[in-house]
Design a protein that fits this description.
The complex is a heterodimer. By secondary structure, chain A is α/β, with parallel strands linked by helices. Chain A has 7 helices and 9 strands; from the N terminus they run H-E-H-E-H-H-E-H-E-H-E-E-E-E-E-H. Chain A has 2 domains: about 1-115, Rossmann fold, CATH 3.40.50; about 135-190, no CATH class. In chain A, a hairpin with a 2-residue loop joins strand 5 and strand 6 (about 150). By secondary structure, chain B is mainly α. Chain B folds into 2 domains: about 30-70, no CATH class; about 75-150, no CATH class. Chain B has 9 helices and no strands. In chain B, about 25% of the residues are buried. Classes of the chains: A alpha/beta, B mainly alpha.
């Protein structure tokens, strides 16, 4: 996987979504091929304190993420932190300040910290959380999965035990030019700037 | 010709004993229409061909024009087309095609007796004229698994 990501980074900027909990030992060594490349590992960190963060992200998530980020940066691998909140506008200013102080202390600058709302898909939809977001509300990011190519990493969610296909682009994933051309054709006529209104990144 | 009302035929034709072995795929609902398929859902009453092919959205733009030409006006009348399609569906044991084209065949003037024969082939001699049986022979050649593999 790191070699594939390195090749992709030679063509386009790459963001790799990760929960950041498994970057230890062998995996850290394997990821060193990404050093200095236009790659960001996007890791979620929702709260400056462990308990509220782990309530949504799982036990020990906070501690593992806090440990992994400096290790990645020390190896020259870029990190982006994503904070996902039910209502980003409602976050307490002091809490936000502590969160930003935390990511800066870990070596992640403000330009690599995004705060975004929960998207009402998959488990969030089942739990009645988040904002509704359709194709026009999301930046087009070709997302390759075993089920096909999607227009966004928010696309391949499961609802009522069935894969959501409303953001499916093509079932064909190779050659990559097939879904890439299809997504360009679909996204081309969209209204400019519409996909930044909800701040979903 | 001994014709049944569509409701009676539908009940008989979809009884469990008549259901073939291949699986049915769920039709893709409008709310789940993939991006390439969404324009095909613009009108109400989207066809089952669209809602089934939508599982592989990139297939729609290449398949629908072909289907349109095949099923559209041509030198071959609609009834004959449905005879071939339904018999081929029966030979391939495609449950979806059998159910869909049973209804389509009835709409095109194929009788219930003929539909039954096309689906399972057991009442062939009594249901059809010699000319229609020649059509069946052509369907068998093109629709048999052996033919598909050749």
């Amino acid at each position: 996987m790191p070699d594939l990501i390195a090749k992709l980074a030679g063509i386009l900027p790459v963001v790799v979504l990760s929960n950041g909990t498994l970057f230890t030992g062998r995996r850290l060594a394997a990821i060193e091929v990404l050093a200095g490349l236009d790659v960001k590992i996007q890791i979620s960190l929702d709260h400056p304190d462990p308990d509220p963060n782990d309530e949504m992200r799982g036990p020990e998530n906070f501690a593992k993420v806090i440990a992994a980020i400096p290790e990645l940066l020390a190896r020259g691998v870029g990190v982006r932190i994503a904070t996902t909140l039910e209502d980003p506008e409602a976050i307490d200013s002091r809490e936000r300040a502590r969160l930003c102080a935390l990511h800066r202390s870990l070596g992640v600058g403000d330009e690599d910290h995004v705060v975004r709302p929960i998207v009402r898909r998959g488990r969030a939809e089942s739990n009645d959380l988040g904002v509704m977001a359709g194709f026009d509300d999301l930046e087009p990011e070709l997302t390759i999965t075993a089920d096909g190519a999607f227009a966004s990493p928010f696309g391949p969610t499961i609802h009522s035990g069935r894969l959501d296909t409303d953001l499916l682009v093509t079932r064909t994933t190779a050659p990559l030019s097939v879904p890439a051309a299809a997504l360009a054709r679909i996204a081309g006529p969209r209204e400019g700037g519409r996909d930044s209104r909800l701040g979903i990144r | 010709m001994n014709r049944c009302e569509p409701a009676e035929v539908e009940d008989h034709m979809t009884s469990p004993a008549r259901v073939r072995s291949s699986s049915l795929i769920p039709l893709v609902k409008r709310s789940q229409a993939p991006l390439l398929a969404a324009p095909h859902y613009a009108h109400t009453g989207t066809s089952p061909i669209v809602t089934s092919l939508a599982h592989v959205p990139e297939a729609l733009d290449v398949t629908l024009p072909f289907v349109s030409v095949v099923l559209g006006p041509s030198a071959i009348d609609g009834r004959t087309k449905e005879l071939v399609i339904l018999r081929t569906s029966g030979l391939l044991e495609c449950r979806y095609c059998i159910q869909t084209h049973s209804a389509a065949a009835l709409d095109r003037g194929v009788t219930a007796t003929e539909v039954r024969a096309l689906r399972d082939g057991t009442t062939w001699e009594t249901a059809f004229t010699s000319r229609a049986r020649r059509v069946n022979s052509a369907s068998r050649r093109s629709g048999s698994p052996e033919a598909s593999r050749s």
